[in-house]
């Protein structure tokens, strides 16, 4: 947990980034060379999972270039300019009859229950009729040239659907259950590739100037509208999706992904729906479609989940700080446990692991001891709050229901003082302005408070007046610091911190252990649940007072000092020098002499300790969200401690690392989720692993 707070020290927006590049393929590459290159680079893997095609199907597919779903996605979702806009206009006249027949075939394929063409086709839905009218308006631009229509012929009805599981080990979204998967028609690959403006051998068509301009050409408003309509037809017709952008439909919500978005199904197609809960029926509007999944806006809940509640926060819909306030707290705890179970089973392939119910809070509000508030200007006035979802637009905030009340009070008073003294706010775009962030730290046990003003420069206008007003209006503050950050970055803190008034630290306790907290020290933001988390860690370590323990990723020594109360000797290692300095101070503060801290990478320092004769009975790891370094895992397997206690903040990387340790001779005994961050999607876990020959 030493660097975990870096998640809040970086002001990343919560929006998603589409990695699609929209790059075009070389028009002059021959069909055979493209096939060879695709096979050698593994691009045909999407089709290799299907049954062998009939000759008719194979012939139809081979007329168009076969590519992987990734390459289709990269092209189709980049901006769509090549899907009919590239050359369709030049072939529009004179091909009407053939195109009508082609649209009829595509319509049958699109509305077939299983994605195949055949006699048992369904009646076209109202959405399908709307898409047909759009196609009629677009004419041949929705399909492309005569050659492309011929190459994407009816052979696709022989290709079965390919089921793909949506994972999140590398950041991808997950379904609510490990067994859920997204069905994708392999025919979409052939149809999509056939729609591209490629100069294939024997096509009788050369690349146009419009093709060679690529995606960077400038369009007038009519061309842009044409491109938007063509994109819609491309996603619905060329890929054979059951939905298209702006469609409104009723979906069943079958789960929730790790971002807290509902996972809906529309005729087997996955839609991610912010605000929807598992078990609900919802009316949604499709916002964006991709090959395997899309995004939709929640319009209405037609059948609500028993866990749905009204979010008490007035700015919940605008603020990105919480994701689950619309879900009952009992429902949140159950979902977080299931989230851990799904990751273990799907990513780690760990079946039958005991995952205990999530340990929650009796009062899951006002639990945060630290506030980091960005400052900006709205309508000429100084504001501070949180970034709106998916943006860097600041939503002004008077109160936050997960912050301690004193944190809210100090932030509001600092904003008022700033307005009174005419203090300027930092502007991210121009790099001008003074006040960037207000950081407040609250010690729950001692009541002491620290205020940190993060500024774009050393000089603070009216500094004495500002300090005087803060001391007068906020008596709980015992430390006022300034952090200077002049870099154009979204990282909150700069390298230099100085004391404007009072002490350079505040003091707090976790259990019986005292900690000194400086302006940039990491300290768990939920002290109530931290004691629960660390208590479980000590329990799983099974200490009797005779053991030697290594604490990898020790940070400022919070877990190390907890363990030192029950062990013979504890060694802590951390790559951040400032954190080790704080750890040593905290050890002295508690007069603990059986703890040794060293700066360096765990995978380097621990083997050196082993060479010095230090053998660990227990190794505790508490890595950041990216999980343990591979070399550290190998070091653990080489040292062969009797027990490994893993403290995790990311179920996906946890599952990956447990798989490595299991394969190396350890057995996962028990997993205990702990709710450190109520009303958010984050979940901590403590895991006990024992060497198999010790059981």
TrEMBL record:
Residues 79-91 have a biased composition (Gly residues). Residues 242-300 form the TRAM domain. Keywords: Methyltransferase, S-adenosyl-L-methionine, Transferase. Pfam families: TRAM (PF01938), tRNA_U5-meth_tr (PF05958). Its EC number is 2.1.1.190. Gene3D superfamilies: 2.40.50.1070, Nucleic acid-binding proteins, Vaccinia Virus protein VP39. S-adenosyl-L-methionine binds at residues 524, 553, 574, 622. Signal peptide: none annotated. Residues 1-12, 25-35, 52-74, 95-112, 129-138 have a biased composition (Basic and acidic residues). Residues 14-23, 38-51 have a biased composition (Polar residues). The active site is at 649 (nucleophile), 649. Residues 185-195 have a biased composition (Low complexity). Residues 1-233 are annotated as: Disordered. NCBIfam families: rumA (TIGR00479). This is 23S rRNA (Uracil1939-C5)-methyltransferase. It comes from Paenibacillus shirakamiensis.
